[in-house]
Amino acid sequence: MTRLTVIDGIKKEKPDYFSLYSTAFINTFESAVEQYSIIKKFDLDTRRKLVWSGVKMINASKSRSKDRKGLEIRFGLISTIKAIASGLTPREFQTVFPIEKSYNGEKYEMKDYFYTKKYIEEFGEDKIIGEDIEEFLMEYDNWTVRFFMVGMMSVASDIRRMEGGKGLAEEFFEDQGITTYTMTEDDKGKQILINNDTGEVQKVRKPRPRWLKVVK
User: Superkingdom, according to UniProt (predicted)?
Assistant: First the structure.
């Protein structure tokens, strides 16, 4: 009779994508600066490599620094990546991050392939993106680019809050007349919601599990 023995498999460690992308970005950037001295003179292939590795690097950095210096460094990196991307044309940008192959955006009132292609057609496929880089990235339908823009807005909001201002989302909802809330903890460690308009405090009530019943 054959006996089967169960042995533990070898677990593969997940690659450190942030380290890989940041190394690629830094090495390419340092080489380019040494050769061209300024970003405006970077050649097309270098720009493509930097935009690809830079966006991936920002998206892979999951931990968000809460100190002012860390936020400013992250925001500076994002600004540098946008500056490099601004030297591309929409046609060139599509070779770095292709438009998502989603075609039902009109049905769900969302951006899709057709929406993005129409925007690019009106913008000019061979026109340098330049100062319109933020608008272009916001209108561009690609998940990787979308996460990058979310990261950018999150950092900008954190910096504004440190300066005593409101985050971008809070400011937007305020302009729309929508009340926003801030979730925090009281001195007893319990979660509370603070109404950002009135300052009113509410306790966070967690839903009772379905399996939990009150015994009378």
Answer: Bacteria
